Amino acid sequence: MTPDEALQIARPWALASLPVSGGEVGLYEFELGYVAWAKVPPSDPDRPPEVIGAPLAVIDKESGELSTWPSLSPQGVAELYELEMAARRRFPDDVRQVLTAAGWRSDRNVGARVTSWLDELYAATPGLDRRLPIFPVARRILDEFGGLSFRQLKQPGVATGGFDVQFWPTRGRVLADLFVEFAGDLGMPVFPLAWYEDGPSDIVAAADGRVFLLHEAGEFLIGANPDEAMTRLVRGERFAEVDDSGEVIA
Description:
- This protein is of the alpha+beta class.
- The chain folds into 2 domains: 3-90, no CATH class; 111-242, no CATH class.
- The chain contains 8 helices and 11 strands.
- The chain has a 7-stranded antiparallel β-sheet with strand order 5-6-7-8-9-10-11. A 4-stranded antiparallel β-sheet has the order 1-2-3-4.
């Protein structure tokens, strides 16, 4: 997609959205596309401007698709578009919509809040930092998703799904003995990520990136990696039961 091709796409949009522009378009190029805006003739300095808060458009370089965006600077719109495209590459539309409504975005980072929670957690129970250490995978998940709360999607005719999920730090439920015992069974550290309404029960990450549900009915694998787990969790899909060593029971 060249700038001239982008202008060809943007001009009809500019004319339709702001006829006063006469189809004149400004263009800002960035890695994924072009930000376009309708050029409005200078207004009489003695009169209020004819247009306030006009939307902008993005023309995708690969597909040529035009989408409209809020009235921000072209650079600001480009940043929002890049974040949206990054989110689309990670999660399906239905999952992304639930997460976005809960406050997630692909550059979300609540690391300072997680650090404060961890400091309080470890200070309250001497020795817990050795029994239940935070490790890189769990820390990355909490930095990105920490504090989010959402209700799972519920598919018609499916018994699973429809429960509330609350990522730490939200509730004061850290069952250290349960997590340490499960870590011993797996042969690797685990760390709690979220409270799950059904049971209630607990969602934990293992040091190898797998995410499990520890439920009164047993232990279940939610996903082999964090993004797979988040997708299956949001969709309310059935989780696979695992044995004491974390292997899926056939």
